[in-house]
Amino acid sequence: QVQLVESGGGLVQAGGSLRISCVASGRTFSRYAMGWFRQAPGKEREFVARISWSGGITYYAASVKGRFTISRDNAKNTVYLQMNSLKPEDTAVYYCAAKPGTSSSSGDEYDYWGQGTQVTVSS
């Protein structure tokens, strides 16, 4: 069993940076692939980034590639999303998710989800 707790969301000016975190419980965290997803008002949930259990493989949505960086520290049971050059279009609730084995860009394949953290980018 895995529980995910997110933090770090808030209000930031366009062009600014923000790092959000997801802390997981469970001793088997290091064997879970992790992903970040987001959902804006009136929009469907969309994939943002994912990372393999070892951290060696990462993948990003085209809309955030070059601006966002996903990373993990298995010793701290934590996954991060560093967001730079933020745009108003990035405003959404951001969710982290976990699944055993390999990572995926499809939210339907993830077993565990955090509560979400609000990121608001002002213009």
Which word captures the global form?
globular
Elements, N to C (H/E): EEEEEEEEEEE
What fraction, in percent, of the residue positions are helical?
Answer: under 10%
How far the N terminus sits from the C terminus, by CA atoms, comes to 40 Å
Assign the structural class, choosing from mainly alpha, mainly beta, alpha/beta, alpha+beta, or little secondary structure. mainly beta
Q: What share of residues are in beta strands?
A: over 45%
Rg measurement, Å? 13 Å
Structural overview:
The protein is mainly β and 123 residues long. It is 0% helix and 50% strand. It has no helices and eleven strands. The chain has strands at residues 4-7, 10-13, 18-24, 32-39, 46-51, 58-60, 68-73, 78-83, 92-100, 112-113, 117-122. The termini are far apart.
